[in-house]
Amino acid sequence: MQFCKTIIRYDNFPDHPGAAPHHKHLSNGEIEDIEFSGLEALYDRFKQEVRDHGEHW
After folding, report:
1. For residues 28 and 9, is the Cβ–Cβ distance under 8 A?
2. pLDDT tens for residues 2-43?
3. Cα–Cα nearest to 36, from 24, 54, 52, 18
4. In a 10 Å sphere around its CB, with 0-12 CB exposed, 13-18 middle and 19+ buried, how is residue 47 labelled?
5. Which secondary structure element, helix H or strand E, spans residue 25, and what is its range?
6. What is the pLDDT of residue 34?
7. How remote is the C-alpha of 48 from its chain's centroid?
């Protein structure tokens, strides 16, 4: 069985003290606050980050 490694994961669950309600998890385990201005903008941002990582979208 092959497992996928997290590259970027967006989250809005308040389970990390000190993190903004909207944040993303990075592959190195860090959490980065993000500004959430709507689902479409977040989708476009995620798509670009996947491409920047070298993955095809």
Report:
1. no
2. 677 777 889 898 888 889 999 999 888 899 999 999 999 999
3. 24
4. exposed
5. strand 23-26
6. 93
7. 11
